[in-house]
Amino acid sequence: MKARYSVIVPMFNEEQVISHTYERLKKVMDECGDTYELVFVNDGSRDRSAQMIREICERDEHVKLIDFSRNFGHQVAITAGMDYAEGQAVVVIDADLQDPPEVILQMIEKWKEGYDVVYAKRLKRHGETMFKKVTAKLFYRLLSSMTSVDIPTDTGDFRLIDRKVCDVLRGLKEKNRYVRGLVSWVGFKQTMVEYEREERFAGETKYPLKKMIRFALDGITSFSHKPLKIATYIGFFLSFSSFLYLFFVLFQRIFFTSWTVPGWASIVGVNLLFNGIVLMLLGVIGEYIGRIYDESKDRPLYIVSETKGYQNEEQLDRR
Ligand code: UDP
Ligand code: MG
What we know:
The longest helix is centred in the C-terminal third of the chain and has 34 residues, at 264-297. The chain starts with a strand and ends with a helix. Helix 9 (226-255) runs antiparallel to helix 10. Strands 7-5-6-4-1-2-3-8 form an eight-stranded mixed β-sheet, with helices on both faces. The chain is an alpha/beta fold. The chain has helices at 18-31, 49-59, 74-84, 103-112, 130-146, 163-171, 179-186, 209-223, 226-255, 264-297, 313-317, and strands at residues 5-11, 36-42, 63-68, 89-92, 117-125, 155-162, 190-197, 304-308. Strand 2 (36-42), helix 2 and strand 3 form a beta-alpha-beta unit. Bound molecules: uridine-5'-diphosphate and magnesium ion (MG). Residues 10-12, 14, 43, 71, 73-74, 77, 94-96, 98, 205-207 line the site of uridine-5'-diphosphate.
């Protein structure tokens, strides 16, 4: 029988929490009084996470494992989960128990009221570094000032989506995925529940600074051309001011010949400054071109090395 609810859990090196996560999710989902499946997407963990889920699969038929051939990233893992999920309502939740599974029941209530997307807004974030909180806050504000899509601030990927939204999202094949933005972009009837984000149950964050920056760039470049526009404006401004300066230089050269020799500092200064800015703007353009290149290669988003928990091929065919 097809499950009514699918819970997607992306995991990357989560051996310290994953069995607790399973227990708590199971408890909550047993309470919801309907059929469900727990889809664990192993994003190339190098620890025992996958093995642990494999063992749970043996004794619990609700549990499924999608094992990636390597680490493809959090957002891609979520996407894969959506490809495999069969439920009428699909929930995405982090593996580290920062998103309390109990909130899922509230989401389901809202879904039954007729909402197609129920996202969870973080009122507070416990046990995260000041740096993370501040950068996250700034990022969400910056993003919303740059895009015309109304992406709710302070929400992660913890959310419930209806089958029809899931199907639409599956049709969006862009490679640099910023899932929470895509969910806003597709529209439908959306609402939210509020919660307090808890401390990580165990282990440490799998989002080091490098991944955070990449994530932020994906978010902005997927939903905004503003950086390109800003690049153009700065370009115009620089050309205009250089033009004015040129007048000044010519004026000096013609009327005050004796002053022109000590111009060395200003030439070097202007050169350094302008070259820096030009390189930076080239970088902005490069970010976009790199993404266009990624899209044009048209490689699959992820590679699955193994699936477990599916009784027959037919169940897998729906991908
Ligand atoms: N994750 C993943 N692939 C990655 C990085 C993270 O699947 O490359 C998963 C991770 O296991 C967790 C979720 O994404 O379930 C969120 O990661 P994390 O809790 O480390 O991020 P934070 O809460 O610190 O932002
Ligand atoms: Mg976390």
